[in-house]
Amino acid sequence: MIEVMNTPHMQTLKLTVAYNGARFKGWQKGNGRTVQSTLIEIIAKALPEASLGKVPEGLEVRLDGAGRTDAGVHAEGQVASAVVPASVDLQLLYETVNRHLPADLALVSLEPAEERFHARYRAQAKTYRYTVVDGPVGNPFLHGRAWRVSEQLDLGRMAAAAKVFIGRHDFSAFTSDRPKPNKERTIHSIDIARTHAAVVGPVEITVRGDGFLWRQVRIMAGAIVAAGTNELSPADIRGILDSRIRAQAPAPAPACGLTLVSVEY
């Protein structure tokens, strides 16, 4: 592979990506089929065509994501940054990449960015949505995109529980990320709402924060849903948060219900 160097002959790009995570083993390049590795492979193959032959085949592409979504997690607005030769036409690259992407992955937008732009380190806030289908009737149209809970959820109790997380806290009890020394994060807002649908309207938990630890949103969602089924009270959740002990919190909610909605810069 030919290594890409950040020179005046290069350009930095901001990519917005959407994907159905069911068949991906997360974002991060590694074992198996991942979003990052799939994008890198297709972008590299598209560069010669998008530059009208000025870029040779085999050019190494570095792609940095705003976050490392887990296996099975979806995205509507994942953001990534890349550096490619200045000779690449962005409209041609956008069209060529989308033409070759698999059906469960799409390049939503592609635009030039300032030279020092980095999708991960420049992110100021992220919004996630967790979807739950509750009650006796399921929703086949959300199969693989939501957590199926047979009990009817109490949205008032869920909203009261969600308030416990607002503000800056140490989320040691709500993450599986043991090595990370700083586990303080700020939650700006959590909205609980039932959407209208032709079959069964799901409950959506929308969380916006300055950043999230590994599995933090899924563990928080598990606690909020437990409040909705009257298994946990807001006081219980406050005690778990203050304990900073992972074993005190519920298991993470299933990955299929989580979607990265957007990243703010």
Give an account of the 3D structure.
It is a single chain. By secondary structure, this protein is α+β, with helices and mostly antiparallel strands. The protein has two domains: 10-113, Pseudouridine synthase I, catalytic domain, N-terminal subdomain (Alpha-Beta Plaits, 2-Layer Sandwich); 125-264, 2-Layer Sandwich (Alpha-Beta Plaits), CATH 3.30.70. 22% of the residues lie in helices and 29% in strands. It has helices at 35-50, 90-100, 155-162, 216-228, 234-243, and strands spanning 10-19, 63-65, 74-85, 105-113, 125-134, 147-149, 167-170, 184-194, 203-209, 258-264. Strands 1, 2, 3, 4, 5, 6, 7, 8, 9 and 10 form a ten-stranded mixed β-sheet that branches. Strand 8 (184-194) and strand 9 (203-209) form a beta hairpin. Helix 1 crosses helix 2, helix 3 crosses helix 4 and helix 3 (155-162) packs parallel to helix 5. It is elongated. It starts with 9 loop residues before the first strand and ends with a strand.
Q: How are the SSEs ordered, and which strands pair?
A:
Layout: E1 10-19, H1 35-50, E2 63-65, E3 74-85, H2 90-100, E4 105-113, E5 125-134, E6 147-149, H3 155-162, E7 167-170, E8 184-194, E9 203-209, H4 216-228, H5 234-243, E10 258-264
Parallel strand pairs: 3-10, 5-6
Antiparallel strand pairs: 1-3, 1-4, 2-3, 5-9, 5-10, 7-8, 8-9
Determine the CATH superfamily of the largest domain.
Pseudouridine synthase I, catalytic domain, C-terminal subdomain
Radius of gyration from CA coordinates: 20 Å
Strand content: 25-35%
Termini separation: 32 Å
User: What does the average pLDDT come to?
Assistant: 94
CATH topology of the largest domain: Alpha-Beta Plaits
Count of folded domains: 2
Shape: elongated
What's the level 1 CATH class of the largest domain? Alpha Beta
